[in-house]
Amino acid sequence: MNLKINFSAGISDEVGMRETVITVSSNPNDLLKCIEEQIGFPVRSKVGTRCMVLVNGRSIKKLIQEGATIQEGDSIMVVPYLSGG
Amino acid sequence: MGEKIPGYGGYILEVDLSEGNINRQPLDEELIKEYIGGKGFASKILYDELPSGIEPLSSDNMILFANGPLTGTLAPTSARSVLSTKSPLTGIWLDSNCGGSFGPELKFAGIDLLKIKGKAKTPKYLLIEDSDITLIDADDIWGFDTFKTKEFLHQRHPGTKVACIGPSGEKMIPLACVQAEGRSYGRGGGGAVLGSKNLKAIVVKGNEGISVYDHNAFVNSCREAFGELMLSSDSNGSRPIYGTSCIYSFIQEAGVLPIQNFKGSAFPGMERINEHSLLENLYEGNRACFACPIICSKHSLVKGGKYKGVIGEGPEYENVWSFGPQCGNSNLGSILKAEYLCDYYGLDAISTGNVIGFLMECYEKKLIPETEIGFNASFGNDEAIIKLVQMISKKEGIGELLGKGVAKAAKEIKGGSEQFAMHVKGLELPAYDPRGAVGMGLAYATSDRGACHLRAYTVSSEILDSTARLDPLTAEYKAELVKIEQDWFSILDSIGICIFANFGLNQNQLTKLLHTLTGIKEFSSLVKLLTIGEKIYNLTRLFNCREGLKRDSDMLPYRLIEEESPHISARNNTVPLDEMLNEYYFIRGWNKEGIPTSEKINELGLKCHEFEN
């Protein structure tokens, strides 16, 4: 399926765009690989230290823990590691 | 006086405006060991010296400005000082923290704690030039806005730093703040208290140094801390570029950004005010506080549209929210204009935006007729927002009621509006919807000054921290988290360091900075510091309990408890406050009414005879 992916704050500078559309499967374990392959951003080496991947506003880790799948219309966002505003 | 205590200016300055007396006396070493500085000092002084039941805007109230030992030193982000008083907005404890350069200058004049009592017969300002301290007539500047006041006093007293009130403080509007060199002691109405005392400004210039206990160790600790902050993806990543609004999209995506007085989930054009838009369309340059490598503050210029040419500090994340999503407004220029007006008149921009959003909901629900307001005040009407800020600042029309704060406004408007008056204990909620991060609900409910995100900031662990495993939508572990953060943040507010340093440094690094500076053995370990933090937080709680607060005051607005979150990410959640509150009181050692038990009071070494039984 095709899903829109957004990049917030400093991640958008690193990636060089604020949003795009990528093709993903329903398996959340494949999402990071899909992002890397389709936009050329080494997200797997940055998750946990420099950025997070959100699916519908929650860390993708939560989705994996719950055994949930990615659905049509889900919102994907890559956000930098931040502590507060 | 003999040799200075390392890390401290060495003096308490007491000014009695009624009598015109000025008394500069050495700082008590016992006070230092037990309460460190800043908020800690304020908690002890206000508890001991301010009787319960006094009227906040009477001459009986006292207002304090207090520094921490790290304020004005080489330590990164050491710009912070605290204003503390009994709040005219809430009637309870208030401490309000400010960066910039005013606190450090006060320290350079040798002052750790400034106590202002009484009321001057005519307008005055206080001039502090090291040990030369005078009260000067301020008739000629009464009525000036805060920018003009600062500029005038800088010209008259070159090289000084100025904290002052604007027309809103002079009119004793409970939302009035104190402006200090481009930053604010923002929340809770400290500006109104200064206005009630006829004190327009405090002008300070200091030339004294700060002694250091272990010079080499302290400099090394500072170097390490600077280095650590520069490695942090927070302090040296998005924050210096995007300012405090770096979290905007993240918070929105997580379902924690309140929209249209916490009832909406979206509004037209909301993407036009996100962090990308701010950077692209508004920011002109950076402003750093004293000794700060993070540089989160911006100055901005509106480059087009009907607000073209407006300039101002910020806007900060909180004020992008308060004049943006809270009011359903996506006009970036109007957001900067509203924040500029708050700085100009001297108003708290969080509370001002919150109460305008409240009015807009009242207007749309037809609880207030348009004739009473004078214009259409629907959500999203940017011109109405600007008019309302001006009316609040001048006590004009409906602005007089709104300036009393959302709690009092709802009581007067009635019609069920109390259910969506977004405040706790009279202080307006800031920019996080706790239905999407329920720990913030407990943080707001138990904050010692009313709804505040700076007493505990659980959203960091619940939402923002990629390594945390907390579920933001449940009560699990939230009581412990709020308690630990409240105690630790009391330390941050006492040592003189910005909360943003806490995001890049760990607690042991901050402890090391403090101990190598002061050499005081009571500050030598994190465990000892946390005990002091707990003592401070219990003392401010006891201050409030003495004013009559108990469990039924630790409440959240009806909307957060009974109405489901409109955000998809928050999955129809509400805040399970009772569940968290029971656990929180238990962990705190407070009884079921939320009052510290005599065992807890004795354990912490507090001398609060009213509560010992």
Task: Spell out the blueprint of helices and strands.
The complex is a heterodimer of chains A (85) and B (613).
Chain A: E1 2-7, H1 9-15, E2 19-23, H2 31-39, H3 43-46, E3 51-55, E4 58-59, H4 60-66, E5 76-80
Parallel strand pairs in A: 1-5
Antiparallel strand pairs in A: 1-2, 3-4, 3-5
Chain B: E1 11-16, E2 21-26, H1 29-35, H2 38-49, E3 62-67, E4 81-86, E5 93-98, H3 102-108, E6 111-117, E7 124-129, E8 132-137, H4 146-156, E9 161-164, H5 167-170, E10 178-180, E11 183-185, H6 190-196, E12 199-205, H7 215-231, H8 234-242, H9 248-253, H10 275-281, E13 283-287, E14 297-301, E15 311-313, H11 317-323, H12 332-345, H13 349-364, H14 370-373, H15 382-394, H16 398-402, H17 406-413, E16 423-424, E17 427-428, H18 439-446, H19 459-464, H20 478-495, H21 499-504, H22 507-518, H23 526-546, H24 558-562, H25 577-588, H26 598-603
Parallel strand pairs in B: 1-6, 7-12
Antiparallel strand pairs in B: 1-2, 3-4, 3-6, 4-5, 7-8, 9-10, 9-12, 10-11, 13-14, 14-15, 16-17
Summarize this structure as a short list of keywords or feature phrases.
heterodimer; A: alpha+beta; Ubiquitin-like (UB roll); 32% helix; B: 613 residues; alpha+beta; 26 helices; 17 strands
Spatial ordering of strands, largest sheet of chain B: 2-1-6-3-4-5
Q: Assign a percent range to the helix content of chain A.
A: 25-40%
Number of helices of chain A: 4
Radius of gyration of chain A: 12 Å
Biggest interface and which pair forms it? A-B, 28 and 40 residues
